[in-house]
Structure formats: C-alpha cells, structure tokens
Amino acid sequence: MPQISTRQEYDLTPALNYSGAKELLKSPAHYFQYIIEERKDTPALAVGRALHAKALQPLEAVNMYAVAPDVDRRTKDGKAAWETFTQANAGKAIITQEQSEMIDRMDLSVEAIKSANQINFTATELMGQVDYGDTPLKFAIDAVGADGYLYDIKTTEDASPRGFKSSAFTYRYNLQAHFYLTCYNLLFRERLHGFRFIVVEKSPPYAVAIYELGATMMSYACEDFEKACKLYATCKATQTYSGYPAEPQVIDVDAKVTTATTINFA
C-alpha cells in the first residue's frame, strides 16, 4: 500500500479516486468519459492550484506557478519579453498579476483561520494508493492536521453555511471526506477524528470558514462509496460502461439527493 510521490505518478496510477467515484455515481458512461478525456486547464483551476501551492507547499510554490509580466504582446518588445518569460517558466502554471494578488489575500485568510483555531499541518499533499477489498483506490489529501483531522482547501464564490451546503450536495463533498478518511485508515491503520473543509471566497473580503459535515450526510457518503466501489469492479470485469437506465424513473421530493441511480448492466 504505497504512498505516491508526484502528481504525474498519481495520474498514471490505475485506481479509483474521488473524482472518478463521483462520475461513476452519475453513470458508468460518465466515468468512462472522465478517464479517457484530456483535462483542460482553466483560469479557475490555475488559481486553485496556485493557492494550494502557496498554502500547502510555500517553499516549493515558486517552482509551481509564475506571475505573467504586464507586456503588450502586440509589439515586438512585448512579444520578446513574453517569449523570454514563457521559456524561463516552462511547465509552471501561469497566472496574472491580479490573480496573484487575489491568491495572496486568500492565503492570508486561510492562515488567519488556521491560527485562530490553532491548526497545524503535519503533512501536506499526501498521495497514495490502497486496496479496499478488490478495489484499488488512490487519493490526494490536501493536509493532515496535528488535531487528528484531514483538511481540504476549497475556493468558492460563497463560503457561507448556505452556500457551502449547496456546494457539498452538488459536488458530493461528503463522499470526498469518507473516501479520504477510508484511504488514510487503510494506509496508516489510524482512525482520525474526522474531515474538515477550509473554504475561502475568491473575492473581497476573501471571507473564510471551516466546515465539518454532519452524521446524516456522512452516512449517505458511506452508501455512495460502497456503490461506487461495486460499480467500478463490475465495469472493470465486464468492460461495460452503460448510461442512465432506459426505463422511466420516478423523482420525488423525499429522494436522497446524494445517492446514485441504480445501474442495471445488460
């Protein structure tokens, strides 16, 4: 049950991760598309990576992203300056000066709430691969706290309780928490107190909050996790990646929004 040292190694490891499990719970067809499609970079992803680098690996952040110079690339001098910059920073995420200032402010908010709650990270960017029965799992945990919690840093437009609750349902953050806690326990044979999210807004005043999901949401995550593992095993065994059921389905207000539709394999 090895740890993984680089992101490239993580990406190449053939195992189910949290993001893949989310797609499986939509349908195996969504999961298949997830594993074959090329990941496209976006400004939001670049900002997220840069914040994680600054907050979790500050000594290495300089090697992970670079701030673009303010040059006019329509001019000869501007083109030359840009070419020199890109060559010197090949392989790094490129962000603007405005984004850099935003990341600095967000990082200050994260550090402030960590200090207020006496949170100290004993490990960051912890990646590994474990086996859950016959299902290989891989994980990338943001941070391990000395207080016995795993931590994940989220950037968002709305870090209020209402806003985060909505995001938690939409993106199945309860599944992420259960997935990572299970993997950590399997790797280190150590049960932690729980999983917490440090959520920071991407606009002034860069408000930040810490959230832990309740017992009901976490119980739904346990069901979803088991279902995703079974779907993964079935898909691998049959090489079948079906979509949504063809037959009509009934949707009602009392349906558990975090559970997946049952997939019937042919």
Structure report:
- β2, α5 and β3 form a beta-alpha-beta unit.
- The protein has helices at residues 7-12, 18-26, 28-36, 43-56, 76-88, 97-116, 161-171, 173-188, 215-238, and strands at residues 3-4, 65-67, 93-95, 121-132, 135-145, 149-156, 194-201, 208-211.
- The strands form 2 sheets. A 6-stranded mixed sheet has the order 1-4-5-6-7-8, sandwiched between helices.
- It folds into 2 domains: 1-29 and 120-266, Lambda Exonuclease, Chain A (Alpha-Beta Complex), CATH 3.90.320; 41-116, no CATH class.
- The longest helix is centred in the last third of the chain and has 24 residues, at 215-238.
- The protein is α/β, with parallel strands linked by helices and 266 residues long.
- The protein is globular and about 60 Å long.
Q: What is the highest CATH level, the class of the largest domain? A: Alpha Beta
Beta-strand content bin: 15-25%
Largest sheet features: 6 strands, mixed
Radius of gyration from CA coordinates: 20 Å
Secondary-structure-derived class: alpha/beta
Overall mean confidence score, pLDDT: 91
The percent of residues in helical segments reads 40-55%
CATH architecture of the largest domain: Alpha-Beta Complex
In short:
The chain has helices at residues 7-12, 18-26, 28-36, 43-56, 76-88, 97-116, 161-171, 173-188, 215-238; strands at residues 3-4, 65-67, 93-95, 121-132, 135-145, 149-156, 194-201, 208-211. With 266 residues, it is α/β, with parallel strands linked by helices.
